[in-house]
Structure formats: C-alpha cells, structure tokens
Amino acid sequence: MNDTTPVILAEDLTRRFGDFVAVDHIHVTVQPGEVFGLLGANGAGKTTAIRMLCGMLPPTAGRIRVADVDMVQHARRARGRIGYVAQRFSLYGDLTVSENLKLQAGLYGLTGARQRERLIWALAHLELTDRKDAMARALPLGYQRRLALAAALLHEPRVLFLDEPTSGVDPMARQRFWELIYELADDGIGILVTTHYMDEALFCDRLSLMQAGRIVAEGTPDELLRQPLPTPILELNSPDAARFEQLAQTWPEVREIVPHAGQLRIRLRAGMDTSTVIAKIHAAAVEHKLTVGVPHLATPELEDVFVAVLEEHEA
Amino acid sequence: MNFQHVRAMARKEWWHLLRDPRSLALILIMPSMLLFLFGYAIRLDLQHAPIALVQESRDAATEELAARFAASRAFRVTLRSNDRRDATTALQKGQVWAAVIFPADYPRRLERGEARIQLLLDGVDANTARLLRNTALVLVNDYLLSQGGQPPIRIEDRTWFNETKESRLAIIPGVIAMVMAVIGALMTSLTIAKEMEQGNLVMLRTTPLTRRDFLFGKLLPYLFIGLLDLAVAVAVAVFVFEMPLRGSLPVLLLLSALFLGVVMLQGALISINAGNQLLASQMALVSTFLPAFLLSGFIFAIENMPTALQYITLAVPARYYVALSRAIFLKGITPLLLWTQVIALVVILLVLLRLTLVRSRKLGLLP
Prior knowledge:
Chain A is of the alpha/beta class. Chain A has helices at 46-53, 75-79, 97-107, 112-125, 141-153, 171-186, 198-201, 221-226, 241-248, 274-287, 302-314; strands at 8-17, 20-30, 35-39, 61-66, 69-70, 82-85, 159-163, 190-195, 206-211, 214-219, 233-236, 254-260, 263-268, 296-297. Chain A folds into two domains: 8-225, Rossmann fold, CATH 3.40.50.300; 233-299, Alpha-Beta Plaits. Chain B is built from 14 helices and four strands. Chain B has a four-stranded mixed beta sheet, sandwiched between helices.
C-alpha cells in the first residue's frame, strides 16, 4: 500500500463565522486506504470541517490538498476526484435509482460505454440492481444511503467523505455499511468518516476527536486506549451496590459513580491514588457491614478516554 | 461551459417534468386558458351598451334619428319611453349607461335649424362615458351628412394595421406577453426553490458542476415548454380570435425565446432570494403579472403615464416584448426596425444572468 503521499492533507484549517470560530487550526492527514474518523458532539465543528475539505465552504485560513489538488485554489478540479455522501439524503426522491445514478455520471463526465459499465458496477456492488427502477424516495433508509454511496463512487474517486453515514440506520444495515467501507479502503481509497457513535470509532484506523472547533485527541484506537486515564476508574462488584453508592458519593476522592452491568464504576478525581481509595473502600465496608468484592482498576473503553479528554479541556 | 453537464442537468429536469404529468398538463393548458379569459374579458370597444331612448313627441323626424341609435352596433336600446323620468331612474339604478332624450319641441326647432337632443351619461366609468359621448356625436354627425349638409372640412381617416379599430387586436399580443412572463418566472422559481428546499444543492455542490451550467441545464427544458406554450397561444390567437399574423413566425419564436430567457432568469433570481417554493411563487407572480399588466403599455399607453412612471417602465421586460410582438402580429415589419427593443431585452437578460450568478455565489447557494 502506498502510504507516502496522503490523499487528504489539511494544515491550520480555520473557519470563522463572524466572531465565532467554528474550526480552529486543525490538522488532518488521511493516507490512501485508510479509514479516518472525525468524532465529536453536534456543534463540535465536524460538519464545518468536512464541508471545507470537500470544497463546499472556503476556509478562513489554512491549506487543503485533496488527491494532489489544492482544494482552495482549484476546488472544481479537486471535486472531480472526491466522493461525498451527505448526512441527509440529497439525491432526487422523484427519480429512480438508475436515473439518479445517470445524472451523477453525467455530472462527473462519464459517457457512453464507460458510463454503462460504471452504472452496472455500482448497482451490483451496492446490491441495488433489483431496485434500479424504484423511486429513490420509496427506498428504506439503508438503501438510500447505499444509493448515495453508489452515486459518490461512480467516478472512482480517490477520496471518500462520509458524513454520519450510519445515523438512523438499523444495526444490520450499519454492519453491512462498514463492510463496504472496508472493501473500499482495501481498494486504496482514503476515507474520512464523521460519526458520533463511540462503538463505530473503534472501526476506524485513526481518529481525531473534536471539541469546540479544535482537535483535542488523536491517534489509532489502540494508542488512545493505552494512554493513562487522568481520572482512573475502579470497578466494584457488590450485592450492597445501592447502599455503597450512597455512602461513597460524598467522598472527596470520587468524581462520579455509575452503575454499569451489575457493577459500580467509580471514577476518581484526577491525581487520586487508586490504592489509597481501595483501602478506604475496604475500611468503609467493614465499618458499615457491607459486602463488597475486590475493587480493581478498569480497562478504559474509548468512551472513557473521550469523556476524560473532553472534561480535561472543559476545565 | 461544459455541455455534458448541461445535458445531464437538462435530462434530469425533463425526467422530473414527465414524472409529474398533472403539473405538465397545467403548464401547457394554462396559457390558452388565460388567453381565453383575458381575450374575452378585456374589451375596450363599445359594443351593445345599454341606453334609454326617450321620445317626448312621436313624429317622423324624431323617429328617423332614434332609429339610427337603435340600429347602431355600439348601442342597445333597452328602454323606450316618452317620459324622461323613466330614463333618469334607469340611469340611477345603472340599468342603462346613457339616455338620449328627444324633447317635445324637437321637430319644431329642427325646422328652424336649432334642434336640441339631450344626452345623459353615467360618469361612474368615465372612460365608457367618453366613448358613449363620442359615438353619439359621430352618429348624429353622420345623420346630418346624410341629410345633405355640406360642412367645410371633412376628415378622411383610415386606421392602419387595424382597419376595424378593434382593441382586441392590440390586446392579444399583450395578453400573450403577460402570460409568458407569468408562466416563465413561475416555472423556474418553483423548480429552483424546490431543489433548495429538498437539499439537493448540497449534493450538487460536491460535483464539478458550475453555477452557470446548473442554471442553463435547469432552464433549458422550461424554455422548450415555454415555447410550446407560446406556439399554442399563437394558434389560439390566430384561429380563435382571428388575429392576423403578418410578420414571420420564426422571428416571433426567436424573440419569444429571448423574452422567456429574461423572465426565467427573473424567476431564478427570485427563488435564490426567497429560498422556498411558496414565497418564490408568490414573488414571481406579483413581480411579473403586475408590471406586465400595468406597465407594459398593453392596456395603458406608456406615453400617457407620468414621466417618473415612464422611466420605471424601462426596466419592465414585457414592455419591449409587447412592442415587438405587436409589430410582428399587426405591422408585419422586421424587428430590425425595432432593434432598440431587442437590444434592451438582451441587456436585461445579461444583467439578470450576472445578478443571479453573483448573488448565488454570495449566498453560497448554487453549485
């Protein structure tokens, strides 16, 4: 796999709307064949960032190169090399599946035999052949997403942008959609995907977490998970969980206690020593005659990492 | 310009049109319907105006002139009486528009050469009152001439291009212009606003399509439909309203395409500013119908307007098209004689195109 020149390279990308800084000096690099995830809550700046990367919105400052073309200077040329799937279905509901694809093919300059060949490929590859004469608006949501993806792939783009591709889609369709994304990445397409599903973040090769227009954490999922949590989490089994929760809530060392799958997850404040707290738990159990299991340090999940990072930046 | 992109857009737009046959039928039928409606409703001539005839004396001299009133195509005598009070009551009730009163001493004074007839007019509609008065004057004048009177001056008049002076012939080209303006602007304002409402532009903006190609591709099918509408309207004008078409049909179609281009761009500009179909269609309707109706010179002569208003009409595309189509229909002259009107339309077209492209870039709307 060619990993020398990135298909997306954005540096110091910034966008202001009046006084409001929607995107604040972010860097994004995506290699061919890589699935890159842009995560963040609604309003964190993901959509503004993706709109700039696709050439829909000129940046206030910064450089963008997409598929070896300067997106700021030559947006139209760069657009011919990218595929974009919007969050909302934005093809034509009153046209059939194949009519929508024919329009898209025309807009990307595909003609004659080449157009026919690509249409057949897209319909087959995204399992839409049976529905090619169906009205787009009559399709189930999962199929509408596939149609949008088919339309974005007709011209064999080198980069694919997917804005919340699986939101609102049932789990089976989500699964299938991710399989398709991996197949495309295996063919060498660089893929940038935005999502707010934490479990989907694990499917990405690399991630950036956005908050208030900035990237606050980035790396592979493994790298992110290996980082020591600033706010350690203890897991505790106890038949007296409810009473213990009440008791420990007021401790100065404890940030929050969350009941989770029959256990208590006790998140400590930053800088607290876990062994001191474990000792304190044992002492309290004896004192109040509570039955508690052995507390142990929890393996952080990606969500814990993100919550910790976001809180750190909010402070 | 990328013809492939224009073609792809135009083909797509065509599919939309075929998918919605009811709207398509409406677009194709509406112009002829409006033409019928306005063609019959707008009448500036006097025909069969109801009048009252009061003859206080029944003698041969009175009877002779009264018969002329009764026989006139302009009048219809709906009340005959020998009491003038009947006439004034009818006038007050609006049953007649005018009353012609022959006093009892009419025959006696006629012999002395000083006869009088009274003409009472309903001045509520001042224009009609003026027409009634003029028609009555001419009628009496003709009667006198037929009696062997020999006035020192006679006017030999002949009305060119419209020998029978029918207002219909002047109105119908105006009605066609008005209908074309409304249809053209309405169709395009709706179709562009629809894409904005549905969010299709988001997808189009990630493709290599340019704003101009988007606009051309989108408008092309509607230009074709507009010309089809025009052809139907011309056929109705010629075959139903017996409108003479003295000039060349291809030239008329060519100029109509130019005018349609103008009003369609007007619709496009409106829709990108309105953003939704409802507002866009209202604005398109008002901004084309009213100026085309009031300020194009098709009913009210521009030369009779206050100077300030005359300047405003310079920005009304319909005024140029009305002048051109009247000339082609009635005078049969080549529009080269009216080249300033053609230039004006071309200038308006280019200004609107520029405005639409600049405005849509500012709003970040079209591709």
